[in-house]
Structure prediction request, 367 residues.
Amino acid sequence: MSMHQECGKAFRFFTKLVVLFTILLIWWGAATTTKQAGMAFPDWPLSAGSVNPDGWLSYMIPFLEHSHRLLGKWVGILVLVLFAWSYVRSWRSLLEVVGIVLVLATVFGIFIAFGAEREDAARKQLFLWVALATSLVPVGWLIWCWTSRGWSLVQKLCATALLMVTTQAIFGGVRVTEISNAFAVVHGCFAQAFFCLLILIVMVAGKDWVRPSSRIGMPKTSITLVSLVYAQLIIAASMRHFHRYGLVDTGVLTTQGELIPEFDNPVIVLMFLHKLMAVVILSFTAVLFVMVERSRGEETLLGSRYVYLLVGAVAVQIILGISVIMTGKNFWITNFHVLNGLAILAFSFAFAVKSRRGALHLKLANS
Prediction:
């Protein structure tokens, strides 16, 4: 069965629905971080020992954290449905899905036991090693499916998404149980990678994926752009999680009153790098825009509409970033700054996929 025989209209709609809920989840996570609500409950996956803790709808902090957890569970269910939809064609394949879910649940449960152990260090270490060893089973299954089975690309990507959403939940849980800012950063950045994977699934499942294109892409340039944007997101996540109270500096063009500050404070270094990367990305997208405009008459550049969207999003992001500084990290402005950063990642990633796909088509046509 070919890839596009299995990707009907309903399936394509569902992939977009999963992306929309994931955007909501990431934005909600950003709001949780902005309000410093990530540690509203010291336990996980329950909240204060309950699926429905008392008073969580009445106060902002527990509301943000508990609803973020509920949204995460919902996205996990949607991704499971997505994989099952792409793969199940018989009772045998259904049993395989049930089996891998049970394995993932086992891994998840052992990590829960690891996080819940607070008294015996040796026992906690044992739980960690058992969890890591058990997690090799689904990872090995995924590698086998990619390399040795006749799966379509959609099926492979959906299986990867299932493992990634489980891993993301574990990162979030370990962040809580271990009270770890490092895992908070990993949790935030891994969410962006998971989001990119979902975008790729939407594109691969689309009707135009297998159609060859005669237009020229810019694969190296677009990959460089994605790398710059993702590096900026890592810097931003590190800055937000390692300095939660206000802003470490209120300069727009300067940091500690200097264009290049003293590098004696890690948070100051992060803020300086964040501003520097903003200038780099702005300059890069401006050059990209000029290249698109020059090729416009020939209509040769693949994915140019993403470049236009990207330029607009980067301009808005600069304005939002300045506004965050000028308002002292206003809650809504900060959250939309994070959300718009996600849009920049989406546009740059989609442009990179289009460019890379176009280059492959061109190479095959010339071979």
